[in-house]
Design goal:
alpha/beta; about 900 residues; single chain; about 15% strand; 28 strands; 8-stranded parallel beta sheet; 5-stranded antiparallel beta sheet
Length: about 900
């Protein structure tokens, strides 16, 4: 049986091109590498062709494209044979909608609020303007609704197998409400001219039996449909008569008939751009095809977790990674329910069940404690590792380079604030409108606050959102914690300071609504359900707001050092001192020893080794500045200039040079194509010269042309020669950084997670580039040849990546042998002395007498001739104080200090077994 707390996890991206059976074939390799738990991307039934699995359409089934339940059972058997656990990336917060594959969503479209699944979706039914009945906006039309209608792109069809009617817009099915069936049937019989035929009379008689509003109702509809499909020759007649609704050019009567029918449904069709302003269902961020789930509803929770509960009970699932927990209305309630479900499913309810959450923490934000949660997926620790490896003295010169190129301050706050404004005005306007309408309704509900105008309330709430510093608060229906109350009050004061109109208590009202103090006993009688709903919905809004503004906008505008532009990170962050790193690790060992530590995920902005290369720019800021200045001159003729348009912009050009160095691989025939795809995504995410909503085709083509020109050796030989020279040096510096990075990941408190393929060098760009196929055959062969590593030979061949694989296996072997030390051991910083002490991170992990000594070096420019040669052991002038420990292989020295030149004989990193000689508590 695999350990309850993983020794190491390995993330696999499942898809139609990498199914359960492909994952099963990799399991022996993972076991040999030292992995204890396979960490799988979502494998429940998702949209056909999904490359990621997050667009789940049915939580109760396995994804048939991955091999279905039979394929899963084969994988499960192989995992059991090799004693590996399974962790599922589970998506509780949203489902894939539109198209024709989500039965819950289709039922809601057919029955509206009468659907038993309506409560599972967060739909504001009454918000559609100029409409007598409630409904949900479906922004799926590629052109205007009127144009699509008149062009015949919307089509009414009859399904003879179901006895049902649906409108179709290409691949999107739009069920017709059964209460409209009688009208449709009468119209189609008349159009077909068969009123007097036996079939026509039977159909008309069926229609006449269901008179009155809302008939047939939900209880009657199955019998109605069954009887309709059983009528002999009915399908042929309906197929002819349905021509009465066949809209198209020069068919005004039929076009109007279809329009009137569609206007009487539980939905309203619209252009896809309407989503940003008019959508009235909660989405995952700004993705129209992913609708938020209300798992706070007990029945919804039970239904979506039924399969997971079964797998836990059968012993086939040993852990969960919970996606986007900040989208949940009440995370605390959710995790309490989840823990009860897990305990109820497990045979041994005392055995820990591993649960980690996808949670992005702001600067100085502490992770909240949730029932049964072991920690996060590790974004914050990835950035901690980056910050301790980066050269702090080089960041100020990099600030100045960015200032000169961008003509703006290197301060992050104004750039983030402007990005938030852009997101509010475009991507998330509709969600914000829902909140402001609800706030205005609360204010108008009592005479003491009715004079706060809707416009003033909108402006006040906008300022609050612009100044809100983290992803969300965690209020429950019982109110805020002291921490959340303080956070709300501080944000209110910042918003108030930005307000130039008369205050007149509007910010006090907003604060009291957000904290729910407005409905405390003794206060004016406002609507408690509305206040509670508003306060909790704001929490679900600020997370997507921050994610779209920071990760998906600011990260593509602020380019001081791209290594710091990483999920969960702060692009303007300072370097972390070794002492600060040690303090963070001691705290983690005490509070969150079992959370994941990641250095690459499917969401990271670049591969871990590309990031390690870019880190090294902080060590050579002067040379970097000179190189950029030269490259800008060399490549000026390749810019695409059209009037005031410059492609790429100056700041985007600077970003491209960093990205090129990070991803550079000689001999990669697909490099230009990959860089162009990356540049397109980066430009659109930045939302400056172009965007996803309003693509600027000329600018995008100009960027592609620029990249094609500068990467063409026939016209850019001098630039490419200079780029390659610097890339070679950064490759070595980056490789050295990477060895320290993986050493820290595996040995610091936490569970190391490996993203697929990253055990060799990983120079990927942002997704989908980081989901390219992994050659596991090559990795298996290389690993088999590394049973007894020859470190000197591997160092000579470091560009192959075999050194990283060998070192990773060595680390995981030690971690397995000392599992108690690394899983639950203490963390003790070790003193380093000598001229190079600031270049060394050294610590011990120990559990009782068992221990390990860890040494990782950093800032390698001085030891490697600026990245031109592998560091020699004698380069390190520092000593390690190991008082209290006896180190394996050094027990006969009789000294409490060991020279780094003796320890680091082959590599700039060391992990070695030791025994702890100190006192035991």
């Amino acid at each position: 049986m695999p350990a309850a707390i993983p020794i190491a996890t390995y993330r696999l991206q499942l898809s139609a091109d990498f199914k359960f059976d492909a994952a099963a074939a990799v399991v022996p390799y993972l076991r040999t590498l030292g992995i204890t738990h396979l960490y799988a991307s979502p494998f429940l039934k998702a949209r056909k062709g999904s490359t990621h699995g997050y667009d789940i359409t049915d939580h109760t089934q396995f994804n048939p494209e991955l091999g279905g339940e039979a394929g899963f059972e084969r994988l499960s058997a192989v995992l059991k044979k090799h004693d590996l656990g399974l962790i599922l990336d589970f998506v509780p917060n949203h489902v894939g909608v539109h198209f024709a594959d989500n039965p819950w969503w289709l039922d809601v479209l057919e029955w509206g609020q009468a659907s038993p699944h309506a409560v599972s979706f967060d739909i504001d039914w009454e918000l559609l303007p100029y409409r007598a009945r409630g409904g949900v906006l479906l922004p799926i039309i590629g052109s205007s609704y009127g144009q699509a209608l008149e062009q015949g792109e919307l089509e009414l069809r009859y399904d003879a197998g179901e006895g049902s009617f649906s409108a179709w817009y290409f691949e999107h099915r739009l069920p017709i409400a059964p209460e409209r069936y009688s009208d449709i049937l009468r119209t189609t019989i008349k159009e077909a001219g068969v009123e007097e035929s036996a079939t026509g009379k039977a159909i008309l008689e069926l229609a006449s039996r269901y008179q009155g509003p809302r008939r047939p109702n939900r209880k009657e509809a199955p019998a109605f449909k069954a009887e309709l499909k059983a009528i002999a020759e009915g399908a042929e007649i309906i197929a002819r008569g349905i021509d009465a609704y066949r809209a198209g050019p020069d068919r005004p009567r039929q076009t109007l008939a279809l329009h009137h029918l569609l206007e009487r449904q539980h939905y309203k069709l619209g252009h896809w751009r309407l989503a940003s302003s008019d959508i009235n269902y909660r989405r995952f961020f700004d993705v129209n095809s992913l609708a938020g789930l209300r798992v706070e509803d007990a029945d919804t929770f039970e239904a979506t977790h039924r399969l997971v509960k079964r797998l836990i009970g059968e012993g086939k699932l040993q852990g969960l990674r919970l996606d986007h927990i900040d989208g949940l209305r009440d995370p605390a309630q959710y995790f309490q329910r989840l823990r009860r479900l897990i305990r109820g499913a497990q045979e041994d309810d005392t055995r820990p069940f591993y649960v980690v959450i996808e949670k992005i923490l702001g600067a100085d934000e502490k992770l909240r404690t949730f029932s049964g949660v072991h920690g996060t997926t590790g974004y914050e620790w990835m950035n901690t590792i980056t910050q301790v490896l980066v050269e702090g003295n080089g960041l100020e010169p990099l600030d100045e380079i960015f200032r000169q190129i961008s003509s703006q301050s290197p301060k992050l706050e104004p750039i983030l604030k402007e990005a938030k404004r852009r997101v509010l005005e475009t991507l998330l306007t509709s969600e914000f409108t829902v909140l402001t309408r609800l706030l205005a309704r609360i204010a108008s509900g009592h005479y003491s606050t009715r004079d706060y105008s809707a416009d003033s309330l909108r402006q006040a709430l906008e300022l609050y959102v612009l100044h809100f510093p983290v992803y969300r608060t965690y209020l429950t229906s019982s109110g805020p914690t002291v921490h959340d109350r303080t956070l709300i009050s501080q944000t209110i004061e910042k918003a108030r300071a930005d307000w130039f109109a008369a205050d007149e208590g509007i910010f006090d009202f907003l604060r009291d609504t957000l904290t729910m103090d407005l409905i405390k006993p003794g206060r004016a009688a406002h609507s408690a359900p509305r206040v509670c709903r508003f306060a909790l919905k704001v929490q679900q809004f600020t997370g997507p707001m921050m994610a779209k503004s920071l990760e998906d906008t600011t990260f593509y505008r602020y380019h001081r050092l791209l290594a710091l532009n990483e999920v969960g990170g702060d692009p303007s962050a300072k370097a972390l001192s070794v002492d600060a790193f040690h303090r963070a690790m001691r705290t983690r060992a005490r509070e969150w020893p079992h959370g994941m530590t990641a250095t690459a995920t499917h969401d990271t902005k670049r591969g871990e080794d590309a990031r390690a290369r870019i880190m090294a720019l902080s060590e050579i800021p002067g040379e970097w500045s000179s190189a950029v200045g030269r490259w800008k001159l060399l490549n000026a003729p390749h810019l695409v200039i059209d009037g005031e348009m410059r492609a790429p912009s100056a700041t985007f050009e600077y970003m491209l040079y960093q990205a090129l160095l990070g991803a550079w691989q000689a001999g990669d025939d697909s490099f230009l194509e990959r860089m162009q795809a990356y540049a397109l995504k980066a430009a659109r995410e930045g939302k400056e010269e172009t965007s996803w909503l309003n693509p600027h085709e000329a600018y995008e083509n100009g960027v592609n042309t620029f990249l094609a020109r500068i990467l063409d050796r026939s016209i850019s030989a001098e630039f490419l020669s200079s780029l390659e020279t610097l890339a070679q040096r950064l490759s070595l510096l980056g490789a050295l950084n990477s060895l320290s990075q993986v050493t820290l990941k595996v040995t610091m408190p936490g569970v190391p997670d490996f993203y697929q393929g990253t055990e060799l060098w990983d120079f990927s760009l942002v997704d989908p580039d980081n989901r390219r196929p992994v050659d596991f055959g090559e990795r298996t062969r290389v690993l088999a040849s590394l049973e007894t590593p020859d470190w000197d030979r591997l160092v000579q061949d470091w560009p192959s990546g075999h050194l990283k694989l060998a070192w990773t296996r060595h680390l995981l072997k030690l971690r397995t042998e000392l599992s108690d030390v690394f899983t639950s051991g203490d963390y003790q910083p070790l003193e380093v002395s000598g001229p190079h002490r600031d270049h060394v991170i050294a610590f011990a992990r120990h559990n009782r007498r068992d221990a390990a000594i860890v040494v990782a070096t950093r800032r390698f420019e001085a030891f490697s001739d600026g990245g031109r040669a592998w560091p020699r052991p004698e380069s390190y002038d520092a000593s390690l104080n190991i008082m209290g420990y006896t180190v394996e292989g050094f027990a006969d020295t009789g000294s409490s200090k060991l020279g780094l030149s003796d320890l680091l004989r082959h590599l700039p990193v060391l992990v070695v077994k030791a025994s702890y000689d100190g006192g035991l508590s």
